[in-house]
Amino acid sequence: MIRVNVEPDLLRWARERANRTVEELGKKFPKLELWERGEARPTFKQLEAFAKAMYVPIGYLFLSKPPEEQLPIPDLRTIANQKAKEPSLDLLDTIYLCQQRQKWYHSFIRTIGEPEHAFVRSAKLTDDVKMVAEKMRHALCFDVKERAQLQTWTEALRRFIDQADALGVLVMVNGVVGTNNRRKLNPEEFRGFALCDDLTPLVFINGADTKAAQMFTLAHELAHLWLGESSLSDVKFDAASSYPVETWCNRVAAELLLPLDQLRAKLQPSTDIHKELGRLAQLFKVSTLVVLRRINDIGAFTPKEFQKAYKGELELLRRMPKSKGGNFYLTLAARVGKRFARALVISTFEGQTSFTEAFRLLGVKSAKTLRRFGTELEIGV
Predict the structure, then answer these.
(1) Residue 121 counted as domain residue
(2) Taken in order 246, 251, 253, 254, is the CA torsion positive or negative?
(3) Where residue 82 falls among pLDDT bands split at 50, 70, 90?
(4) Domain co-membership, 332 together with 314
(5) d(CA 135, CA 210)
(6) Which pLDDT score is estimated for 273?
């Protein structure tokens, strides 16, 4: 049986990159420890299986040393004002997949002659936060009074996503890598990112995060598009970022979601803080964390009081039960974005895009599923 030469360091790198241990992989690859010590060599078939299990291109394993993988977009995440650690494989694969979808949509949209979006790159860091937020609100048709008529702020989040989609932004919300439910994204690593493009701007929101955080993340990443910048963010409610652009985007997002003038008009300072958070969240259809941040912005808390209130509210939100299951096709539409999904399904059934390409970009495996997806999107295919 022919065995292949592979550098032990590459096998170890691939395993650690996938955040796996030798013990976890022992049943499937019983000689992995020997391979990593250079005391045994795998067959090509075994190496193929290993590469697939580690989500790494097999060609990487024939290099002389591990490749240096870098984020393809600016990393503006901070943890305790320190630069974030190296990106995980799940994060990298999510960015790569979104870039592939954006590239496909860019080519598609150019063929039908769509113009570039004027809102992209229309703002500068020196611009007044209140002015930029008002322009964003107008472009998005984001009416605070209209939102007050909705039943819940989670419904308002869905409406917000639809408004960004209608403006021309590809909005993708997913808590896993692609459609692989075994590869869950970690909101402690990142909350979202923006891929700026004048024709096909894209925002990705970590769906594993709380609904409360998702609303603010969308507003924050939209602010990045207004600046004309791609970025990877952790979008903190409770602390200033060491990056001025992140601080600016946070301020714009907060003003977009809950204008300070309107908050001041409705705030009842003598009311119990927890009751007031709930009342204002229901009134403005934003999360209680957004309300808390805005109350802090008008100077109602000392830093210590704000941190205590923030931690308490965050704990309450984390204890809220998360929805399980649901309609596969609605979930898929949220994961890839309705604008992208409709374009890809139509292009595929019109013969402009191959089914193989559509399956890869959507993460589905059959034409039957694709056709049913088109029906759910109300597309006649």
Answers:
(1) yes
(2) positive
(3) low
(4) no
(5) 27
(6) 80
Give how many domains the chain has, as a whole number: 3
Do 296 and 152 have their domain in common?
yes
Same domain, 41 and 160: no
What does the angle CA 142 – CA 148 – CA 152 come to, to the nearest 5 degrees? 105
Looking at the structure, do residues 209 and 254 belong to the same domain, yes or no? yes
Q: The pTM is what?
A: 0.87
**Judgement on whether residues 141 and 29 belong to the same structural domain of the protein:** no
Domain that holds residue 338: 328-376
Answer whether 334's CB lies under 8 Å from 207's CB. yes
The pLDDT value recorded for residue 320 is 72
Do the Cβ atoms of 51 and 6 come closer than 8 Å?
A: no
3-state DSSP of the chain: CCECCCCHHHHHHHHHHCCCCHHHHCCCCCCHHHHHHCCCCCEHHHHHHHHHHCCCCHHHHHCCCCCCCCCCCCECCEECCEECCCCCHHHHHHHHHHHHHHHHHHHHHHHCCCCCCCCCCCCCCCCCHHHHHHHHHHHHCCCHHHHHCCCCHHHHHHHHHHHHHHHCCEEEEECEECCEEEEECCCCCCCEEEECCCCCCEEEEECCCCHHHHHHHHHHHHHHHHHCCCEEECCCCCCCCCCHHHHHHHHHHHHHHCCHHHHHHHCCCCCCHHHHHHHHHHHHCCCHHHHHHHHHHCCCCCHHHHHHHHHHHHHHHHHCCCCCCCCHHHHHHHHHCHHHHHHHHHHHHCCCCCHHHHHHHHCCCCHHHHHHHHHHCCCCC
Q: Do residues 58 and 84 both lie within one domain? A: no
211 and 337 part of one domain: no
* Beta bridge pairs of residue 78: 83
Query: What is the C-alpha to C-alpha distance for residues 170 and 98, in angstroms, rounded to an integer?
Result: 10
Distance CA 364, CA 350 (A): 18
All residues at 6 or more sequence positions from 135 whose CB lies less than 8 Å from its CB, including other chains: 119, 122, 123, 226
- Reported as a single tens digit per residue, the pLDDT across 260-276 is 999 999 998 888 888 88
